[in-house]
Amino acid sequence: MSETLTADALDRLFRTARTYNAFSGEIPEQTLRQLYDLVKFGPTAANTCPARFVFVTSPEAKARLVPLMDEGNRAKTASAPATVIIGYDQDFHEKLPVLFPHTDAKAWFDGPREARHEPAFRNGSLQAAYLILAARALGLDTGPMSGFDADGVDREFFAGTAIRTNIIVNLGKGDPASIFPRSPRLSFDEAARIV
Hints:
There is one protein chain. The protein is an alpha+beta fold. The protein is 41% helix and 17% strand. The chain is built from nine helices and five strands; from the N terminus they run αβαβααβαααβαβα. Strands 1, 2, 3, 4 and 5 form a five-stranded antiparallel β-sheet that branches. The relative contact order is 0.22.
């Protein structure tokens, strides 16, 4: 990889990309599948791939999700053509014989589930970030949120599993009138150093 992306591509992914608070449009199932097919290639430690995705698109599923969102996130979630619940599987290690076959990586994570929480959450969070960037690359606008009843979402969408909700992201055509002015960012010298 020796060439930099174009300025337009960097804008779409980072510089001019925004978090939207109102959405419209439709997203075909094929686009959601294409989105996942990009996300799955993002790196995770030992290829753990702990993120699990529930694409909420039907009116019935939206009716289950919207009441679990914080009040300020309900209308935007109701308006989005798709909302993805991104969870992390605390039993991700069960898939490692397939995902990391050249050594017994499953044994690294055997034992109490609590010991797997941190790698599951960390690597699942990476995959959530990949989803936002992949969605932008496919021309979708995003609205990531952490304001929701996580226990309620777990009960409603992940009951009986080791999956816990991490973040929820609305997808669709964002309404430019719904974005806030861009907030400041830290400079390189405030946030980073070279040693």
